[in-house]
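Encode chain A's predicted structure.
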Amino acid sequence: MARDKDYYALLGVSTNASAEEIRRAYRGLARKFHPDVSKAPEAATRFAEMQEAYDVLSDAEKRKAYDRFGHAGVGVGAGPGGFGHSGVWTTAGVGPDGSFDPADVASLFEGVFGPAATGFRPGAGRRDPMGRPRRGADISETLIVSFMTAALGGSEKIRLDTADGPQTISVKISPAIESGTRLRIKHKGHPGGPGQPAGDLILVVEVGGHPYFRRDGLDLLVDVPITVAEATFGTTVDVPLLKGTVQIKVPPAAGSGRKLRVKGRGLTDAKGRQGDFFAVVQITAPEGLSETGRRLLGELAAELKNPRESAPWADDLKRRRN
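Encoded structure for chain A:
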């Protein structure tokens, strides 16, 4: 199909190029022809053409329409201003006459390559496709929260590199917060255009581990090792909670993996919802037995029933052996 411009040729990719190949090609050419970098007289126009091609080919629906109908399918004009019309700035900041607004170009370039790719202050001069100042871009960061702070609540400090220099802020952590929770800190993102607010700082929480506690939602779990004799006859053990301790009764014949619940002693979230505490029984094999101990254990073993005979996979195992 004949086209006014071949977007694939402009980016130097084949018509069956993947989205990643298109992005990679655009990034390489944008670095070469960015008007702040290239002094060639056609750089601004070339940059606008590449942006026009990338805007279409990086969007699955626009690309499909372009492949089928050409420029008419995506409503693109053929003038040097790309997507713009007479007297209107394009998203690349390039006007119909090939001139460009450095602040707009920096804003677009920053969005693709990050703030370090341009000498402009991050977010400065951000404008919409009509050239109007716009709100600053958001910043996303990972916030690692210690297990105990995440469980009980508290605060964590985070250091930001802002246009005004380094800044440390304290972030409130609600009790029972979970990994993946997103915290929004207003107006701590990139600065906006003239008269417009800064973007927000989006913190994605990652909860650290603990030497022996683990979580399942609001429930708190801890492994409790017991001896073979304690598992056989039952026992009472002291175990730690997040705060304080609790005594738990282990019934006779308790097997490894059995969960013994203490209601309401897990985590409590900001809405007052409570989880439970679970002591998970783990039977440990005896070590360092004396000769007498080994003899007595051997006599006991002769009296014990093979527990694998009642395992859920016992019948299947017999069939496979036969």
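Residues 76-125 have pLDDT under 50 and may be disordered.
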